[in-house]
From TrEMBL:
This is Molybdopterin-dependent oxidoreductase. It comes from Sphingomonas citri. SUPFAM superfamilies: Oxidoreductase molybdopterin-binding domain. Pfam families: Oxidored_molyb. PROSITE patterns: PROKAR_LIPOPROTEIN.
Length: 251
């Protein structure tokens, strides 16, 4: 986070020729031009300019996995609806895929297991200052969006969760660069077991180039939208809306 802030500060101050050269190239990218010239937040444009958004997050060996991976935020949604799904071992749970898609879907855990699976051992970095390395597995979000027939009007993917944290519904969103990133998966397994309740059962997002709060647990719904304006309070996520965390939490 701090590293990013410093980088941005340097970039904004006018930086070196090297930085400007890199920016120039980045500004040629169509998605960057759209963002910048649609008059969106200049801060967001700069973040994109200074980061290679397609780069892979580091992956680790099994012997590097953390012996203990703590839980954070909601540890059990605790609602009647969630308790009922949990009691049935999530057999009745469905992931709704809707919004700007040609074919809305309602996917069970076995439907998700039928997609090609991506296992990955990555490091989770929480903004509160702790990290842990764990193994995640599930289909790539890209595959699920393809199955649903994502519309070209879609610009963001919104994740609705089963829990309320501090009384407010938890939700998150990412743009299409992250949605189609090869390491962005809908994980139903952690460390070779079904996700437990503390870590987000039955399904969570793993978007490996971003901080912990973007890794939405207890997924119920994935919705493709054109704008975040009508979602929550409009800033694209629980922490973005209720505190002032950045929407793009790149690491
Ligand atoms: N639905 C939901 N997702 C969430 C949270 C939450 O409270 N509710 N907390 C976030 C935060 S801040 C972190 S660090 C991680 C923690 O994931 P873990 O409990 O598996 O360690 O989940 C993120 N996703
Ligand atoms: Mo976090």
């Amino acid at each position: 986070m701090w590293r990013r802030r410093q980088l941005l500060a340097r970039g904004a101050a006018g930086g070196s020729a090297l930085l400007l050269g890199a920016c120039d190239r980045v500004f040629q990218r169509p998605e960057v031009r759209t963002i910048l010239f649609k008059g969106e937040d200049i801060h967001r444009g700069l973040q994109r300019a200074l980061f290679d958004r397609d780069a892979l997050a580091p992956e680790f060996r099994p012997d590097q996995m953390s012996p203990r991976f703590r839980t954070n935020g909601t540890r059990d949604p605790g609602t009647d609806a969630y308790a009922a799904l949990r009691a049935g071992r999530f057999a009745d749970w469905r992931l709704t895929v809707d919004g700007l898609v040609a074919r809305p879907l309602a996917l069970s855990l076995s439907d998700l297991g039928a997609f090609p699976q991506r296992p990955q051992i990555t490091r989770h970095d929480c903004v509160e200052g702790w990290s842990a390395i764990g193994k995640w597995q599930g289909p790539r979000l890209a595959e699920v969006l393809r199955a649903a027939g994502l519309s070209d009007r879609a610009r963001y993917i919104v994740f609705t969760c089963a829990d309320y944290y501090g009384g407010a519904p938890y939700y998150e969103s990412i743009d299409l660069v992250d949605a189609f990133h090869p390491q962005t998966i809908l994980a139903w397994a952690m460390n070779d077991r079904f996700l437990d309740v503390g870590h987000g059962a039955p399904l969570r997002l793993r978007v490996e180039r971003q901080l912990g709060y973007k890794q939405a647990k207890y997924l119920m719904r994935v919705t493709a939208v054109e704008s975040l304006a009508g979602v929550g309070k409009g800033r694209g996520g629980y922490w973005e809306d209720n505190v002032d965390y950045d929407w793009w939490a790149g690491i």
